Amino acid sequence: MRLMPGRMREVELVEAADEPVRSRSAPDPAPWPPAARRMSVELDDDPGDERPDDVLTARTWLRRHAHWIGGAVAVVVGTLVVTQVTLDHREATRVAALAAIPGVVPPVDASIGVLWRADPLLAPALRSGAMVDGVLVGGTQDATGAPAIVGLDPDTGVVAWRTPVDLPTPQPTPTSASPELWMSCNDLPRDGSHVAACIAQQVGEEVRGIPSSSVWVLDPSRGELLSEREVDGGWGLTFADGALVVAQPVSADGKPARTDAGSVRWKVSAQDVVSGEPRWTWTTPPTDVVGREDGPEGAPHTATAWLQSSSDDHVVLGVDNHAWVLTVDGEPLLDVPLDPASWLETARAGVFIESTWTSSTYSGTLLLPDGSRVPIDETAGWLAVDDGSAPDVMFTVGQAPGGADGLSGRSARTGDRLWHVDGTIVTSLLLDGTVYVATSDTLVAVDAMTGEVHWTTEIDHMPQQLSTDGRYLLVPGLGVTLEAYTLTDGGLAWTADLADAVRGDSAGQSTVFVRGFQSGWHDPRLYVWTDTGSIAVLG
User: Fold this and answer.
1) Which pTM does this prediction carry?
2) 418 touches 411 (CB < 8 A)
């Protein structure tokens, strides 16, 4: 569990892993032993061969029951076949379930190596991309800085399609070159299928104010551009239920707000991401603008908004010292005044957390589904993988100078603390009702409901990242190594040294491996990112 998605680590999740887990095949049935034994006890009519009574008895029994033995053998073989089919079916069901969980990577073992490589121009597609209907979709810029959205085969790196896209008029750069862009793509379900929804915004030290954002929606199979839109800087923007949701400042009469307005309303509107057909609109009460007279010099004349959609069908709007929670249909649920240095976060099971940061510590208030408020001295925790198990439990973390201090499991109904894990929490994930926690020097498996510790494994380095393929916990080790720990008992199953494989043709050169992690935590592959900007994709 991490407070900051930007935490650095060596071998990376490349967001959203949608590939199946390979099963451990059951051992093949042994060769048919009774046949060999039958040869050794076949009747010998040589009168000079005197056999002990037990051998004669065995011969007689075999002759009398030969037909029964054949049937029994058929039953045994048939049972083995049926058992294997049943196991295969169960594994296929589990594979399908795992494939739908963001953050679960494709299955790996000790033979893991480099599947393919992405050069520095293609690598951003992995860092910004997501799996959409079996295609890795991400944003890139060519050597001239021109942006494009690409679709890749996640197994081979082959570019299936490349769609150039246009930007709004960018701010000028010192070198007159194309601007540097932050890009992110998402898998968006819509009408029983999936589309790729990508956002880009100009970044860099030379950027002044908040630049506009570009939104592109594409067909993942062909790369066809289905729709595009420009969203003004400072407006809120998110995706929910197949819709583009935007929050913009308006005046009392619903017209665009003046930049020097002292009070504005925020109109939140949802429209179909492809057709642009309006879905719903909701507008806040008037809110005072913070920053023009009350804020520092140079603050914007109107407030900025942020929008966030949650996995449990909510949309959160935050503006200055206020937040609102809506359903994905635009119905208001909560109206939350915020203290200075506070913000509203989504948690699990319909719980929200009003978090406050003061003097290097967190405090907050749980907003429970029944409307009750529970003060806590923690903030919302972050799971690298959440399979939806233990649906009545939510997670919170504290803060210490070294990072997140302690992980708590809480009842989503009452807010009561059910259990607590001490230590500096690096990251954690939830799978099959068990929380796997990486602290600064241990891996711990905890029952999400009761807090019972299933096992604890000490390690000799800080686990900067924790991934899983559904069979192992995958932890970057020292150098360019990957360690796999079993989910059942935390034992070290295998270690793979990937340094030579990652270097490839650069073997012998002094290659520094950059530790990096970006916003797309649901990346569909493990990868190693080098100091040249290229990426080695693992599998």
Assistant:
1) 0.79
2) yes
